[in-house]
Every structure is written in structure tokens, then in C-alpha cells.
Write a structure and sequence with these properties.
This protein is mostly beta strands. It contains one helix and eleven strands; from the N terminus they run E-E-E-E-E-E-E-E-E-E-E-H. The strands form two sheets. Strands 6-7-8-11-10-9 form a six-stranded antiparallel β-barrel. The chain has a five-stranded antiparallel β-sheet with strand order 1-2-5-4-3. Strand 3 and strand 4 form a beta hairpin. The longest helix has 14 residues.
Length: about 190
């Protein structure tokens, strides 16, 4: 994940913190360990917000994912394979507004809509890490890869995550408007 407010609010993927019974620890770049509390898991998107009790933290600058262009440079940062901290890979935005079905051990599968496709290497362990533009602004959050392919990865656009961040800051939870529609086949009877 990455820090989005100086008081310890961290954005990550829901699948990273899917286990509601687990205890979570955040390792910051200065080598410190902090107990983390999961504040909210988005019911629709692969987004979660966690909190550590630290203040005065440097935050990631959030960009605007609505202005992305195909071929634009993208920089992925994460803990590749859960072993190599702060791995940086560079590629391009190779697709926009993709819909993918992602799955993983322990949390099943879900359809993720509107994601950014990139060929910047995203590996297991990069989930929740930032996808940056050349200005160093976060334009997405690394979330999934296509197994069996080379460098086809996906990131949730940061503008989708901004709504969740603001919702947690205001209300302490993620509020999603939802309209349920159901249909029934009508026959002669």
C-alpha cells in the first residue's frame, strides 16, 4: 500500500487484507513496523483503507487518472514476490477501461471494471502499490496480473480510489450508492 494522509491512512487492495481475523503489520521504508487496523473494505472494488498510529508522514501525491493516454509512461512500485522491497518497473499504459476477472487463493474471484492495463512489470507482492506517471503522481493502484503472459498487469485508476479515501475521511467507512435491479421471466401462467 501507500500513504495517502499524514496521519497514517494507507490505501491498499482489498485482497491484500481480505482475512478479517488476521492481524496486519505495516513495514515503512525507514524499517519501522506498525500495527495496522483495517478501516474499510470496498464492497464493489478491490480497494481497502488501513490505518497506522503515526503522524507527520509523507504522503503520495495523487494524480488524475481521467487524463491518461495510451502509450504514456507508467512506473509500478511494490514488493515483488513479497521479497524484493521497493521494486520499480517501467512500462506504458497499454489499455484503458478494461474489465478483468481476478482470482486468488483464499478470496475467490471478482470482476474488476475500468482498470488500467500496463506492461510495467507487476508481480505478486506488488498488489496495493502505486502506479505512477512521470511527475511522480499516483495514477493507479496495482491490483492484478495475467498469469501465463508477460507483463500484462492491471491497476485501479486512482480517481476511483479517491472517492473511497474521502468517504473514509468523512464517515469512517466506504459508502457506495447501489441500485439493485432484478428481472423475472413472465409466462402465461
Amino acid at each position: 500500500g501507500f500513504i495517502v494522509s499524514s496521519d497514517g491512512l494507507i490505501l491498499t487492495n482489498k485482497h491484500v487484507v481480505y482475512d478479517t481475523k488476521a492481524a496486519y503489520t505495516v513495514l515503512t521504508n525507514d524499517g519501522e513496523k506498525h500495527e495496522a487496523k483495517v478501516l474499510a473494505r470496498d464492497p464493489v472494488q478491490d480497494i481497502a483503507l488501513i490505518k497506522i498510529n503515526v503522524s507527520g508522514l509523507k504522503t503520495a501525491r495523487l494524480g488524475n487518472s481521467d487524463t491518461l493516454k495510451l502509450g504514456q509512461t507508467a512506473i509500478a512500485i511494490g514488493n515483488a514476490l513479497g521479497e524484493f522491497r521497493n521494486t520499480v518497473s517501467v512500462g506504458v499504459i497499454s489499455g484503458l477501461a478494461r474489465t478483468v476477472t481476478a482470482s486468488g487463493e483464499g478470496f475467490g474471484s471478482e470482476t474488476i471494471q475500468g482498470v488500467i492495463q500496463t506492461d510495467a512489470a507487476i508481480n505478486p507482492g506488488n498488489s496495493g502499490g502505486p502506479l505512477l506517471n512521470l511527475k511522480g503522481e499516483v495514477i493507479g493502484m496495482n491490483t492484478a496480473i495475467v498469469s501465463g503472459a508477460e507483463n500484462i498487469g492491471f491497476a485501479i485508476p486512482i480517481n476511483q480510489a479517491k472517492r473511497d479515501i474521502e468517504s473514509v475521511k468523512k464517515s469512517g467507512s466506504i459508502k457506495i450508492p447501489y441500485l439493485g435491479v432484478r428481472y423475472l421471466i413472465v409466462n402465461e401462467a
